[in-house]
Amino acid sequence: MSFRFPPKKIKVYLIGDSTISIKQKSAYPETGWGMPFANFFDDDVEVDNRAQNGRSTKSFLAEKRWKPVVDSLKEGDYVFIQFGHNDEGKEKVGRYTTIDEFKTNLIKYVKETKSKKANPVLITPVSRRSFDDAGKARETHPGYMEAVKEVAKAQNVPLIDLDQQSMELYEKFGVESSKLLFVQLAPGVHPNYPDGRADNTHFNELGAREIAQLVLREIRNLRLPLANHIVKPAVKK
After folding, report:
1. What is the rounded CA–CA span in Å between residue 178 and residue 105?
2. By percentage, how much of the chain surpasses pLDDT 90?
3. Chain-centroid distance, C-alpha 58
4. What whole-number distance in Å separates Cα of residue 216 and Cα of residue 207?
5. What is the DSSP letter of 187?
6. Which of 8-12, 39-43, 230-234 has the lowest average pLDDT?
7. 128 vs 85: CA distance, rounded Å
8. CATH of the domain at 184
9. Do β-strands 10-16 and 78-82 pair in parallel, antiparallel, or remain unpaired?
10. Spatial distance between the Cα atoms of 119 and 135, rounded to a whole number of angstroms
11. Helices 162-173 and 205-221, axial angle in degrees (round to 10)
12. Can you give the pTM of this predicted structure?
């Protein structure tokens, strides 16, 4: 009787900001899209969500959050990279990056991932909820969205245009119903937010799942080998 070692798990690292990160119970119903994303894969995949609230490409590096990721990368692993929300805020001291600095940091993440024979995937920053008077979703990451695309093309790495995909999702829901995807709470509705909250950046459970499903769809469209490990939905009989 021969002994077979179990196959090595594929690690999928998520690095980015609060739109992806795992939330404390005190923040619920706020939910990062990386939380439901982790549940859509078979047992051969382990999702390691390293995203943190309030981080930019700059502060994620400065706080040495990237080093333990790159040090642990193995051949065949993945790194999904989505920043921009905090890079673009000029008032965010220690986090703000110019577009050139943003691109330089993204290139560092990509090249160091490749150096370990792992697979970088760049993601444009997921859009905030913003509509014009005609009910069309507005671009909320000018410059930074294009920068991610430019780096992806120059470095020849897969790109998920989550900015565009999320805007299309909000338009599909409509101006009012798209609020159902975000942490939009009237006073007294939730004990974590007794005074209510009107947030057009951070998702609730429904919004996070919808965004996660957009990412999963693009993984399939890009024909990444990781797509073979996405759990197929049960067929109703």
Report:
1. 32
2. 92
3. 17
4. 14
5. T
6. 230-234
7. 9
8. 3.40.50.1110
9. parallel
10. 38
11. 130
12. 0.94
Q: Which two tokens stand for residue 188?
A: 């007294």
pLDDT higher than 60, residue 60: yes
pLDDT digits (tens, 9 = 90+) for 186-237: 999 999 999 999 999 999 999 999 999 999 999 999 999 999 999 976 444 4
Instruction: Compute CA distances 53 → 19, 32, 60, 215, 219, whole Å.
Output: 8, 9, 10, 20, 24
Answer whether residue 235 is part of any domain: no
Mean pLDDT of the chain: 94
Residue-range definition of the domain harbouring residue 206: 10-229
In a domain, 3, yes or no: no
Rounded-to-integer distance, Cα 42 and Cα 232, Å: 9
**CA 102/CA 179 separation, integer angstroms:** 30
Q: Which of 210, 215, 211, 236 is nearest to 227 (CA)?
A: 215
Q: What angle do CA 220, 222, 223 make, to 5 degrees?
A: 60
Cα Rg for the chain, rounded, in angstroms? Answer: 18
Residue 5, pLDDT > 90, answer: no
Domain count of the fold of the chain: 1
Q: Is residue 133 part of a domain?
A: yes
d(CA 49, CA 79): 10
Residue 190 DSSP symbol: B
Is residue 5 included in any domain, yes or no?
no
Tokens linked to 194: 């007794």
